[in-house]
Every structure is written in C-alpha cells, then in structure tokens.
Amino acid sequence: MLKNFNVIGDDRGSLISIESKTDIPFEIKRVYYIFGNKNNIRRGFHAHKNLQQLLIAVSGSCKILIDSGKSKEEVLLDSPKKGLLIKELLWREMFDFSADCVLLVLASEHYDEKDYIRDYNQFLDLWKK
Ligand code: T46
C-alpha cells in the first residue's frame, strides 16, 4: 500500500515525521537503509512470515515488485514523500536503483533470518493452503 506523507515545509526546507501507530500501523523496532547499489542489480527475492515494513526512497529512486502469490504489482518509489507499506507474506524484489538511491526501511521486528521465506515455491505453497 502506497502512503503519501504530510510535508511540514517552511522557507528553510521540508521535514517529514513518521510516528509508530499513527502514520504506520506498527511499532518501529528496527531501521536499516540500502544504498550504493551496483547497476542493474536486483535484491530481495523473499517474503516474510511476520514482518511488516515501510520502504521510503529518501534519495533517488527504485522500483519494488510486490507479488501476492496471485497478482504482481510494480511500485516506483521516487520521492521521500512516498512510503510503501509491505505487510507479511508478500514476495518482494527491488530493482532499477538510481545511483543516488537511499532506500530507508522501517521494520516492525528485529532482524530474524528464520522469518524469511527465500524459496519462491515454498512461498506459493503458503497461499495454496
Ligand atoms: C527486505 C528488503 C526490503 C542484517 O544483518 N540485519 C538486517 O536488519 C538486514 C535487513 C539484513 N542483514 C544482513 C542479512 C544479509 O547477510 O544483511 C545482508 C543483506 O540482507 P538481504 O540479502 O536480506 O538484503 P535484501 O536487500 O535482499 O533485503 C532487505 C531485507 O533483508 C528484507 O527484510 O524486506 O530489504
């Protein structure tokens, strides 16, 4: 789900504030950011069992493929004013990173490799149950 954030602007510039439970539906337990990606690389290729995340291209742009197991959608993140909320059990791939892209991620849980579903067929099987 794409969200547009309110910009608090004045003659010095702009500021966006994101608060847990108010602007996003979870408590933020972890923050990470992805940057300096090589040309034409694609990242992700997994789903999460429980994790919810909000992705924001705070600089530059990238595209995100969201696959629900039944349909696929491509989302362009090209503004710090936009955030993509990715709930659990959605396959994601990130690609077309601009050289200046900094992809900020706010996450609902601490890092846990056991929460990852990295096998696409296993992901599809979950939706068949
Ligand atoms: C996601 C997309 C949007 C950590 O040690 N701590 C962390 O918090 C994260 C996110 C990663 N790592 C380690 C695990 C790997 O050895 O960093 C390495 C790269 O992670 P990964 O290959 O999973 O990165 P991406 O870009 O494919 O996926 C990341 C997140 O892992 C994932 O949750 O939804 O960004």
Could you name the key traits of this structure?
129 residues; Jelly Rolls; 5-stranded antiparallel beta sheet; 1 helix
Structural class: mainly beta
**Form type:** globular
How is the main sheet built? 5 strands, antiparallel
CATH C-level: Mainly Beta
Provide an overview of this structure:
By secondary structure, this protein is mostly beta strands. The protein has a single domain (24-128), classed as Jelly Rolls (Sandwich), CATH 2.60.120. Helices cover 7% and strands 45% of the residues. It has one helix at residues 120-128, and strands at 2-4, 8-10, 13-15, 30-35, 43-48, 53-59, 62-67, 72-77, 82-86, 91-95, 102-107, 116-117. The strands form three sheets. It has a five-stranded antiparallel β-sheet with strand order 1-9-6-11-4, with no helix packed on it. Strand 7 and strand 8 form a beta hairpin. The protein is globular. The protein starts with a strand and ends with a helix. The model has no long low-confidence stretch (mean pLDDT 96). Bound molecules: dTDP-4-keto-6-deoxyglucose. DTDP-4-keto-6-deoxyglucose is lined by residues 30, 32, 34, 43-44, 53, 92, 94, 105, 111. The site of dTDP-4-keto-6-deoxyglucose has 10 residues, from strand 4, strand 5 and strand 10.
